[in-house]
Amino acid sequence: MKLRAEDLGALARGAAVLGTGGGGDPHIGRLLAQQALREHGPVEIVAVGDLPDDACVLPVAMMGAPTVMVEKLPSADQISVAVQTLAKYVGKTPTHLACIEAGGVNSTVPVIAAAQLGLPLVDGDGMGRAFPELQMVLPTLAGIEATPMSIVDEKGNRGVFDTISNEWAERLARSATVDMGCSAIVSLYAMTGADVRGSFVAGTLSKCVTIGRAIEQAQRAHTDPVAAVVDELGGRLLHVGKVVDVQRRTTTGFARGDAAVDGLDASHGRLLVLRFQNEHLVAELDGTAVATTPDLIIVLDSESGEPITTEALRYGHRVSVLAAPADERWHSPEGIELVGPRYFGYDLDPIRALEAV
Fold it and tell me: pTM score > 0.90 for this model?
């Protein structure tokens, strides 16, 4: 399978859906990737199951607060330099690149590097969605180390961390990212093909394209694009309404905040509050939690079905809020400890997307 410039609209749109509000602006990521594909040609997409055991797979991603990327774009060279810096440090030649998360820009950042470096891209990711911290990936549950990892800013500064744990990788890299202007490019979780097969969510890029095309087809046919996304994800509609308040701040390298959605139509008279840290983590309906991490909480424009990231939420937006199930591995005790509500400071047990509340 070849990924071409004309596929990127659907890829970025679907990735922004799976990104649960985080992962960066899909429009910016798509533009950067389209330029790379036009300049270097299409990128080969390789199924997780087709990776040789001894493949050298290097994921690459943007780290930082998505709000910053609205004004501070990464350079295309910055992305490939992160891969090259890590490859040089570990003394290996990469055979494949990969997405560490499904998110708007973090689904397209590896496309840019793959086009520039002439490497195939793995059809999968390390989460099946987006989470805000480096250790919050399925490879961590599989015992795979985040470091050595490279970090590069747009000025040309670069560094390598080699830490005692994945949590320390997050802690040290987050501090460096803040000093780099709250966004940087990182390459980390260097893996063999066998590692990827045992720890990745397979088929993520294909799934993103499928979701994006379902939205496009519904728009063209004047059918309900929100219902199309619910069907693709096997999720449910939580709430429909108008955004009446957004409290958002960029702090410690994250976009943190809350958004209030006043109910319309079947949700009239009810208030949904979204709690987010880059990604939506908790949805509360009239003061009661109705969906939480690790399952997906997704905000779409009610008319167009376009995904809305946390940095793009604005007063007056007419939105539909969905919940969808995450990869089942996130619901293991270890997964809940790593990304459950209590990790983020909410005194809640996880509420699953399809659970009746």
Answer: yes
